């Protein structure tokens, strides 16, 4: 949202006024006033001095006139008004600027993890916008070449496609599959350009794969909600899965991806994978 929008300008103005009126001079390191004051909270002159802007400029902002603070001015206002992280993010958004994202460990609600298991025997997994695979069921693990045996960092759709040699030749019609994944990543990058982990992932892929670098330079952008993926699995041969991508309402940065067999041959291959997985688990238990 930009302050060229009347709604954003009005909201920014209200935020600045109310926050200024809620603070006392001692809250921001100024000497307390002596005697009564007709101005609730801080004066505009005081906030303007703390933020390093003119009183006229602050007045225009508080009156919702057409002024758009730069990032530096917006940050100075946040500091002058002692805004917390959430308030700061809100002010920067109203001023039309991206908010640097906090470093967080991606968490998947237990209910979604359980849902992925409940979808079995259809392959299912949960990914984030970086296409890190965060949760999966047994048949998805088997389909993606023993996904659960890979290090957490390697469980990323793009790293698997471009940096893991086991996936060379895995997708029949590879170009369509991997270009779709890259176009999806570029869409995510546009919405999360301040995510340092995402920037590191893109740099790693560009340095490690000329194929990825070429697709990335194409600047294709697309978010695929459904489609088909023909595969050549080393254990069960050729199969094709159709997929659907769903967004949990509580966290739109997560995606639930569900595969289903596109034909009878593919269903038989998935059934064999599930059976193989069960047999391997039983064999492991007997060894233990």
UniProtKB/TrEMBL annotation:
SMART domains: HTH_XRE (SM00530). Pfam families: HTH_31, MLTR_LBD. One of its GO terms (molecular function) is DNA binding. This is Helix-turn-helix protein. It comes from the Bacteria. Gene3D superfamilies: 3.30.450.180, lambda repressor-like DNA-binding domains (1.10.260.40). CDD domains: HTH_XRE. Residues 41-88 form the HTH cro/C1-type domain. PROSITE patterns: HTH_CROC1.
């Amino acid at each position: 949202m930009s302050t060229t929008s009347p709604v954003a300008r009005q909201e920014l103005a209200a935020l600045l006024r109310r926050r200024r009126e809620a603070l006392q001079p001692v809250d921001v390191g100024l000497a307390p006033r002596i005697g009564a004051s007709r101005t609730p909270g801080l004066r505009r002159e005081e906030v303007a001095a703390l933020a390093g802007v003119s009183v006229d400029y602050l007045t225009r902002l508080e009156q919702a006139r057409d002024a758009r603070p730069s990032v530096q001015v917006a940050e100075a206002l946040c500091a002058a008004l002692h805004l917390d992280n959430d308030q700061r993010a809100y002010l920067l958004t109203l001023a039309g600027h991206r908010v640097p994202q906090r470093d967080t460990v991606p968490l998947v609600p237990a209910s979604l993890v359980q849902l992925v298991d409940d979808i079995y025997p259809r392959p299912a997994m949960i990914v984030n916008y970086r296409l890190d695979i965060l949760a999966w069921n047994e048949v998805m693990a088997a389909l993606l070449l023993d996904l659960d045996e890979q290090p957490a960092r390697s469980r990323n759709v793009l790293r698997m496609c471009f940096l893991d040699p086991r996936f060379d030749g895995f997708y029949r019609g590879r170009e369509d599959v991997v270009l779709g994944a890259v176009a999806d990543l570029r869409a995510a990058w546009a919405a999360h350009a301040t995510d340092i982990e995402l920037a590191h992932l893109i740099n790693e892929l560009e340095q490690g794969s000329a194929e990825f670098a070429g697709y990335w330079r194409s600047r294709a952008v697309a978010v695929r909600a459904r489609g088909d993926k023909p595969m050549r699995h080393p254990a069960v041969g050729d199969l094709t899965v159709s997929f659907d991508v769903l967004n949990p309402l509580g966290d739109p940065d997560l995606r639930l991806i569900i595969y289903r067999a596109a034909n009878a041959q593919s269903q038989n291959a998935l059934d064999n994978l599930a059976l193989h997985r069960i047999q391997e688990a039983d064999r492991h238990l007997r060894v233990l």
